[in-house]
Amino acid sequence: MHLPVFDNAFLRALPGDPEPRNFARQVEGAAWSVVAPTPVAAPRLLAHSREMAAELGFDEADLASPAFAAVFGGNALLPGMQPYATNYGGHQFGHWARQLGDGRAISLGEAVLADGHRRELQLKGAGPTPYSRGADGRAVLRSSIREFLCSEAMHHLGIPTTRALSLVGTGEGVVRDMLYDGHPEVEPGAIVCRVAPSFLRFGHFELPSMRGDIDLLRRLVDFCIARAAFEWNAPHLAGRGEALHADWFGEVCERTAHLVAGWMRVGFVHGVLNTDNMSILGLTIDYGPYGWIDAYDPDWTPNTTDAAGRRYRFGWQPRVAYWNLGQLARALSPLFADPAPLQDGLARFATAFTDADRDATARKLGLAECRDDDVERMRALHGLLQVHEVDMTLWFRALADLDPQAPSLQPLEAAFYDPGKRAAGEAAFMDWLAGHAARLREDPLPASERRARMHAANPKYVLRNWLAQEAIDRAHAGDLGGVETLLEVMRRPYDDQPGREHFAGKRPEWAKDRVGCSMLSCSS
Ligand code: AMP
Ligand code: MG
To answer: Which residues fall within 8 angstroms of residue 149, CB to CB, at 6 or more apart?
Structure first.
């Protein structure tokens, strides 16, 4: 089997926990603990990402070998791997939750690619760690399929994300009470190998800061800046000192703004934007009870745990990200004599988000540039889409078919869910389309360029919950073909793929109130 070169810089640079035994505990003064994956009964490779396998140097023979399933199911290590779990805290639903840590994630090491980029390989669901807080450290197949597929789908949409190399079935059962209503069931277990330059989260900085461990905080920041400078190709971030810390924080704010603007453009709702689920590299991380917008609704949250306050609803993601950055700023403040540079960094979020959102508006509507009246027009459109129950993805994709000389609802019919609501909105939509068509007639873009630009911003295929659920249902029956097909479709989300209309359809009636489609819990 191909053996990646491992160089576990994180372990070298940051202090580790001296306790070698694996039991749940508070870990102070250390960024990580040594912990080995717990072996599983019968590891079997269920799916893999061919792009990730190629990037790491694994070929078809490697993927087919039992050794591959053994390593990525947690039963064996490759030379150079040094498994560990990291220590972090976080604000959950607005409240400080103290130590959390990698409760079911175990990093195997950092693979160094030929170009010097680093890829940390991390198993999710490989057994308990010192941070498991009494939980089992395992993951079920349904949530692992969701994480595996969505990581890759997000990447192909061009939105920063952690990746997924493999999905391995464990051959063991995991007990979960999916809706937390006293009905535990045994479900098949699985392990995803995730891949990222680093899995550091805002919570990694919050925990030492809250504990007053400023030395650990500073060392984490310095490590992270060095990693970020390389991965972001931002050589100005080399070195140390307060000005550099400020520069880096501002960059984190901008990256986070771009990330959230990307989610808003394609209708992705993360579902659990706690600060422990915010990547310091600005990646989408921790795919749990996420969802994709079907009928446009800024108030929708897929997460049943969030149903009461709906803190993590679609339309609130920008302000939640900003709030989370505020917590990060507070955590970093002991490194600053004066808070002004941190405030400046937060201001960079607002500017970057507004710019990215305006850029998305121009691209989604097919305009060369976004004017202030276009922002208003987009806002008005969102209002109509919400009131009249219109599918977000279908609407924007079909908008490219609008004839600016003769605007009509005809190309957009398929986006409506409810004929009554459509009829009630007809006049308002015709009004909006007339205004939009007039605007297009003033815009300099040639028709073919406009169409290509719109298609590149408005995906045809997104990983709607019901699509993932279909693949999960088939996988539970032993058929992984649904996972494979979805992975294939989501590799080219902006291309028309003839014969794959099913994957570009609106939510079917059965999925409207089905668990796993319209509602998801954190139980995974
Ligand atoms: P999440 O809500 O998935 O972001 O997880 C929040 C915290 O709970 C993190 O520290 C996770 O590592 C931990 N956690 C979630 N599920 C499990 C599990 N089955 N076993 C151990 N720790 C878990
Ligand atoms: Mg998490």
So the answer is: 164, 463, 468, 471, 483, 486, 487, 490
What is the spatial distance between Cα 188 and Cα 138, in angstroms, rounded to a whole number?
Answer: 10
Residue 391's CB is within 10 A of a number of other CB atoms, namely 24
Query: Which pLDDT does position 239 carry in this prediction?
Result: 67
141: number of CA atoms within 13 Å, CB side? 28
Ligand nearest to the CA of 201: 2
Question: CA 372, CA 379: separation in Å to the nearest integer?
Answer: 11
| pLDDT tens figures, 442-498 | 999 999 999 999 999 999 999 999 999 999 999 999 999 999 999 999 999 999 999
d(CA 515, CA 366) in angstroms, rounded, equals 36
Neighbours of 211 (CB within 10 A): 16
Task: Tell me, rounded to whole angstroms, the distance of Cα 376 from its chain centroid.
Answer: 29
**521 pLDDT more than 90:** no
Rounded Cα distance, 72 and 51, in Å: 17
What pLDDT sits at residue 494? Answer: 98
Name the pTM for this structure: 0.98
Counting beta carbons within 10 angstroms of the beta carbon of residue 264, is it exposed (0 to 12), middle (13 to 18) or buried (19 or more)?
buried
Active site residues: 276
What atom in ligand 1 is closest to the CA of residue 274?
A: 4
Task: Give ligand 1 pocket residues (Cβ under 6 A).
Answer: 100-104, 131-132, 135-138, 272, 276-277, 286, 288, 522
> Which of 98, 104, 129, 204 for a ligand 1 pocket mutation test, highest count of atoms within 8 Å of Cβ?
104
Cβ contact 83:77 at 8 Å: yes
Please provide residue 414's backbone torsions phi and psi, each rounded to the nearest 5 degrees. -65, -15
| Beta bridge partner(s), residue 295 | 391
- Which residues hold their Cβ within 5 A of ligand 2, which is an ion? 277, 286
